[in-house]
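It is worth pausing here to work through a concrete case rather than discussing structure prediction in the abstract. The textbook approach is simple: state the sequence, then state the predicted structure, then interpret. We follow exactly that order.
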Amino acid sequence: MKTDRQMKELWFKFFEKHGFKRIPGYSIIPENDPTVLFTTAGMHPLVPYLLGEKHPAGEKIFDVQRCIRTSDIDEVGDDSHLTFFEMLGNWYLGSCPKEEMVALSFEFLTSKQYLGIPIDRLAVSVFEGNEVSPRDEVAANAWLKCGVKKENIFYLPKENNWWALGGGVGPCGPDTEMFYITDKQPCGKACGPDCDCGRYLEIWNDVFMQYNVASAGGKAEKLARPNIDTGMGLERTIAVLNGSKSVYDTGCLKKVIDFIESKAQIKYLESEKAKRSYRVITDHLRSSSFILGDERGVLPSNVGQGYILRRFIRRSVNCARNIGFDVKYFADIVDIYVDEYGRDYEDIKANRAKIKEELIKEVERFSKALEEGHREFEKTIKGIERHKEFAKEGEVVENIISGKAAFRLYDTFGFPIELTKELALERGYGVDEKGFNEKFEEHQEKSRQASAGQFKGGLADGSKESARLHTATHIMLAGLRNMFGEDVYQRGSNITPERLRFDFNLDHKMTAEELEKLENFVNSVIKQGIPVTCEIMTVDKAKASGALGIFTNKYGDEVKVYTIGDVSKEICGGPHAENTSELHHFKILKEESSSSGIRRIKAILD
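Step two, the predicted structure:
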């Protein structure tokens, strides 16, 4: 039996042995990326380096990255889906033979020192080839050389074995995926890793980024500097190795399930509805703990990341209601998670009290929203009754709550459709579930698009325009600190090639005079034509030099420090302009509230 902790230690030991350098995981809240709400994969924060930026730790690196994916939020409750997970990753940020990465993967998977998977249980898939890239015989022959059986090597098309950034722009290439063969019998002659029968469970993926697509609809050209990016989902791999049917039967997730069962009125396996409710609480409160505990300070709200956080908490409340679980115990679940993950993530440990406080506040707000929802439900019923009263002759008004009204109760007041149906039944009404589902699917599609990680804008595009705006944020922060003191820090940014959006802490709305003063400060720095320089140095040296940064475990042993004369010195991954004169002219479009105590500036360069 492998635990999460043992798995991480094996990962560290293996890649250190092979000359890779461990880097710390990044925040779960992306920096300078407008295309995704959360860090969705281990490679996500490393995109600038995949596109050519030099990493302070060198070309061979590895980490464990916390991730949140919300595209399948409504699938949570089955055996495998999670919104929060940890991703084990390693990278060759430069040319590396495929054979070398395949051999490393094989060793980690099959060696008794590490995972010890029998070779007969290992299947792999490789790219079958197309007009862009040939059939990947190199990877296939490498697997054969390692000892994988020929019948366990599958050639699959682009939809299975080709990796690209969302939207198809950026580095891309064929991949090879690794699968554990279970005891389930083949579902037919065509049974393979591309079917959903459950015989093949994916555990790892090596991506060979050999090409680059420069623009939407463009052709894939050979990448000047190929990279290799790998990713292994920790929770799913642990479940596979331990022979567990579900990720919820392992590690800390199992501990939380057991705790809920010790307090709930309905047992875990009493019904499918109960099992799903237990799992939603377990998953969503873990995600909520990490979002609330993150150093970038997201709180529940009606937009963006705050909306997702609010949805996690409110779904947990509804599921607690389903199983007779008192929400006062949510704080105990937070403690379980902080005790487990605080060893690896300092921010969640340091913010234990804040997590509980904000969680309780949102639960209380939701209780109030439910009361308002009940009133809205009554208004809906009265509206239908009035319609009946004034209906034209021959017009039939049914006792049906429309799908639009049911979805509004769900989206605005947190009413699950089951609650609306239950209340409707008590009043002799039905609910247009088909209409509700249509609205729900429309909402889901919008959420998927928001979190798809298309990387069309922001620093992920690597454009000169984005780099210039990034430099402007450094100058602007320096100006804000000059005006309001050194307690002012960046609290988030969102940069596209067209504009920047910058969040910072301040206790008041900036006046027109203050905005003009800030704008003039930035433009004066631009006019001076100051070179923007970059040094790689140790964290201790960066601190001693006065570089601005929040010194937690987010940094590795060495960091990049960007300096703009005597105006700004910050720890940052880049990229930036080479000289402030490239920024031309800075103009503030808007200053507004982002959240409590956080202000937001939107600006452009013209």
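Step three, interpretation. The chain has three domains: 4-248, 250-431, 463-605. DSSP finds 18 helices and 18 strands in the chain.
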